Each structure stands twice: as C-alpha cells, then as structure tokens.
Amino acid sequence: MGSVADLESVSKLYGTFVALRKVSLGFERGRCYVLLGENGAGKSTLLRVIAGLLRPTYGSVRVFEGEKPEDARERIGYMSHAPMLYDELSAAENLRYFASLYRERVCMDPEAALGSVGLDATLTRPVGQYSQGMRQRTSLARVLLAQPELLLLDEPFSNMDAASAQQMLDLLARLRAEGKTILLTTHQRELAEPVADFLITLQAGSVASRAETTTRATR
C-alpha cells in the first residue's frame, strides 16, 4: 500500500505551551483517518505540520516515503477551518483565480472541480451568500483544483446542517474510493466514522488512542 506520511516523535511548542507532544504516527496511502479530540488537543496543529505550514520543534515528518512536506506541497491539499474564499466572487470566479496561482501545476478545470463537489458552476451568486454547506464544498473544490494525492481537511463538517454534512460525507467516501488519502479533523465522530479506516484521538497534544474501525475491518 505504501506510506503517505510518517511522523516520528514530533513535538510542537509555542513558548512554554506544548501543542504536540512526541507524536509518532504513520498514514497509509488510500486510507481515511479521522482525528478526534477536544479544542486545543492538537488536531489542527498536526494537520499544519503534515502540510508543511508549520515546522515541528522536535522530531521529523516525511511524506510520500521520504520527502519533506515543504518539498511536496503540490501533492498535498490543505483545507483550513476558515473557508479561504473571496466572499464577493462567485464560486467559479474564486476557483479561476486560485487556478491562476498554480502556474506550474496541471489543474482541474474550475467548472469540473465545482461539479465534482456537486455545485453548479454557472451560479453567479457571490460565495458570501452561500449556505455553510455550499461554502465548505466550494473550499473543497479549491483544494481539489491542484489534484493533490493527500487531503488534509480541518473540520470539513463545521456548522453544516444534517443534509449538507451527509453530502460532504458522500463526497469524501467517493474521493477515498478513488484512491485519495484523507486526514480530517472533526468533533462529530458518529458522522465521520462510516468513511473512516482509523480513528485517532488526541489529548493535550499526545496520541491517546488509535483504533481501526469496523468499517475498515469489513472492507
């Protein structure tokens, strides 16, 4: 199967505050990992370290069997908790702008990226008028533009109603079936568990548990 990311004794300190504490984890290609834990447990910090947006204070991170995260960013898609969209632009206008920034990458067509997350690319309504579910799916379409192999999603179900959350879950299940590796954070274990291969719980910056799900065991 191969490894897509490996952390060895990773710690991240902000002054005297320890955000991550000697975290050692491996992530297999083509699997979905759900990171659980209270606010401040270290979930978002862990994603940002794997994405290469933060450097660990101690320990090492390698992606794609040996690369440093900062040297493989074109293969990693990171969706932050904040939507990172321009509210005054439509979804298609947002994606066309972001695609223009990826000058050395082969990107999906912006309209195709929106279609892949179930959005109508012909909508002219500004993103600022979208529902939370539509905004989250637009954010995911932005991440998918560059066709990354590893998806790091911080609270993709945040503030969604039940119908929108199910749409997102169905989309993630399809991406996983297509061979994408997904790491996502959530407070909604019962929602994400059906698509998860592993559940990882963080507590005060440390790995409290790592469990294979029944879903994976029956695949």
Question: Layout of helices and strands, plus pairs?
Answer:
Elements: E1 3-14, E2 17-28, E3 32-36, H1 43-51, E4 58-63, E5 76-79, H2 91-101, H3 110-116, H4 132-144, E6 150-154, H5 162-177, E7 181-185, H6 189-192, E8 198-203, E9 206-212, H7 214-217
Parallel strand pairs: 3-7, 3-8, 5-6, 6-7
Antiparallel strand pairs: 1-2, 1-4, 8-9
Helix pairs in contact: 2-3, 3-4
Second rung of CATH, namely the architecture: 3-Layer(aba) Sandwich
Biggest sheet details: 6 strands, mixed
Number of strands: 9
Strand content: 25-35%
The CATH homologous superfamily is called P-loop containing nucleotide triphosphate hydrolases
Instruction: State the end-to-end CA separation.
Output: 15 Å
Helix-residue proportion: 25-40%
Mean pLDDT: 91
What best-fitting shape do the alpha-carbon axes yield? Answer: globular
Q: Which structural class do the helices and strands define?
A: alpha/beta
Rg: 17 Å
What's the domain count? 1
- Biggest sheet: strand arrangement: 5-6-7-3-8-9
CATH fold topology: Rossmann fold
**Stretches where pLDDT falls below 50 for ≥5 residues?**
none
Count of DSSP helices? Answer: 7
What's the helix-strand series? EEEHEEHHHEHEHEEH
CATH class: Alpha Beta
